[in-house]
Amino acid sequence: MEAGPQALRGYEPLLHDTRVPEAAGDGGTGQCRLEFASGTPLPELIEVLRHVFASAPESESVLLVPDGQPVGSTARTRFQQQVLTPDACDEDFSVRAGLGAGDHGTLPGAPTRFTVYCYRCGECGQVCYRIAADEDPPLCPVAGHGAMRMDQ
Q1: pTM more than 0.70
Q2: Distance CA 116, CA 128 (A)
Q3: Is 17 exposed, middle or buried (0-12, 13-18, 19+ CB in 10 A)?
Q4: Beta strands of the chain (E only): which ranges?
Q5: Which of 95 and 118 is assigned the larger pLDDT?
Q6: Distances from the Cα of 42 to the Cαs of 14, 99, 129, 139, in angstroms?
């Protein structure tokens, strides 16, 4: 029995839909991409997803793409049910359903080892988030649109 991609193993609790959309999407699905290295710790990934959902209110789900390999998506509603949002005066966050709790991964304070970069297609407006910016810009999944540009 095949266990699935190695990258999937650490992020299974975040995946709500393991179907991967076709590469030639139209950009109107309410979904953006998050590209990251498969070794990204779960607490950092949770914090990045909180940032992505806060910065992209139009996105109803985020396609998780570790090491360039889409593995599935996490929906805004399900994510919010699993991860408690911080109070206005408290920068710490807690996790429901055991996400990161077993390994004491949710230490106090915001993670400081990552920066989230947002890329947007100039043609259709599709969005892709990345933790690393030292790679070539992502390509828009819509055929013929080319490289995305960093969004401010």
Answers
A1: no
A2: 10
A3: middle
A4: 31-36, 61-66, 72-75, 117-120, 127-130, 149-151
A5: 118
A6: 9, 8, 16, 26
